[in-house]
Amino acid sequence: MQQREEVFAKLAEVYDPELDQSLTELGFINQVAINGSDVTVSFRLPTYWCSPNFAFIMAEDIRDRISELPWVKKVAVCLEDHCASAEINEGVSNGKTFVETFPDMSSGQLDELRKTFRVKAFVSRQERLLRHLIRLGFTHSSILDLTIRDLLELPNLESEGIMLTKQYLSIRQALGYDNEPKKIAFIQSDGKKLDLESFPGYLANIRRTRLSMEFNGHYCRGLFETRYSMEPLSELEVCK
Fold first, then answer.
1. What average pLDDT does the segment 214-226 reach?
2. Greatest extent of the chain over all pairs of C-alpha atoms, in Å
3. Which residues form the MIP18 family-like domain (predicted)?
4. Which domains are assigned to the chain?
């Protein structure tokens, strides 16, 4: 039981790059089989034709996260019901890169694509946290002066604010910015400082990114639930 819980804890760290939600939250993980030190993970996507590069990123991340468990010796990933299942499963399970797996259709590795979606996730998570702070009564000026230490020590963040802070700092670190206590908490995705005069326009821009990602998330969940005849998630589950 403990091994299974450890595997699912690692799978919760694997995100759909386009939606910024974990595969476990989305219900994409279909089956996990553990045989000694060998782990096989099967997952499914909303459509038969979901982009192979997105599918490859998720399959690769499943393999890499599960491989971090000290007792795991071998990981097999099985993407089901997809137009490129055979290629992706063979490539990821044998440690091949995307280019090695799709030499005739890829124009490069997936690093730039990963970075593009990390930036979108950064912007989306930051907007949610900023909106929460504004709702609590923080002024624009006070928000822009916050350091990481200030943010972590705010006494009235509430449970939602604590969760949003944790998610924001996680993606901030994933983009390569350190979370030292003295650092300014809110910066642009390229590391530039935010200024008070342009802050309202900045908020409007990042709101559009967040809404776009949420729309895609609702659309994909609907396709997935229809494809596999699943009950829709409750609003509470969707907002986790």
1. 90
2. 59
3. 4-77
4. 1-107+220-229 (3.30.300.130), 111-193 (no CATH)
